[in-house]
Amino acid sequence: MSGEIKLTDPRLNNERWADVLVQALPYFKHWAGKIVVVKYGGNAMLNEDLKEHVMEDIVLLNTIGIHVVLVHGGGPEINHMLERMGKESRFVNGLRYTDEETMEVVQMVLTGKLNKEIVSILLQKGGKAVGLSGVDSGLLRARKISRDGEDLGLVGEVTQVNPEIVRSLLGQGFIPVVSTVALGETGDANHYNINADTAAAKIAIALGAEKFVQLTNVPGVLRDVNDPHSILQRIHIADVQGLINDGIIAGGMIPKIECCMLARNGGVPRTHIIDGRVPHSLLIEMFSDRGIGTMIY
Description:
Helix 3 (75-84) crosses helix 4. The protein has 297 residues and is of the alpha/beta class. The protein starts with 9 loop residues before the first helix and ends with a strand. It has helices spanning 10-31, 48-63, 75-84, 100-124, 164-171, 196-207, 240-245, 253-265, 281-287, and strands spanning 35-40, 67-72, 91-92, 95-96, 129-133, 140-147, 150-161, 175-179, 181-184, 191-194, 211-216, 234-235, 270-275, 294-296.
């Protein structure tokens, strides 16, 4: 048929792309000038192609005036380095036991290797990025913790966030990239290994962020873990405990939800868990009404 329009027809493509941009425009206007904290999970960082997609998304957000702070983990890379050294990883109730030698590896991998790799990719994509650790300018202060009475070594919890250095960088158009090694409290000369999810939530609170997003390696909260289509797109804070009691929120999802609740209760209006394995999932979440993953509200 001479009047048939095929999927490859440029008229259709132009109309489709124009429609996408028009629909995204209100979101561009809404988010311009706002602070968004993105926690980039260690497991979501393993695929190099997907990592580049994430960095492209962040550069795009920064380019249109959204202030993005990227907080990253690096558990798998730390495990790999310890294995190469012949040192066995030890976990106590899900937290890495961190002796002095392990702490040196944590700092080397997070602050020295992964942080600079992420900054390098952002620069290659045309962004302005600066790498930080929680030690820089006293960004993160922490105290030593134990778990159920068991010593965890140099594992800490954040007690104070001093966001001035981050605010200064955002004001100059930079993307701060934060690795979560923290200083001890005043009088404590140690550095501490910090849970990156919790640290990211507390940084979002301290900055008065408009949005806190955890990019991870799961679709979100699933009603049935064997059915990726059973995702719960929205969960009210009041319903969380019931979902935990029913076993729907379980295992490693519990601390992620707790971090969303921490951020939400600290004044961050929107908190999300989204799948970093989906190309450009961050853009889908930011610039469409369909969203992606699970929002805790």
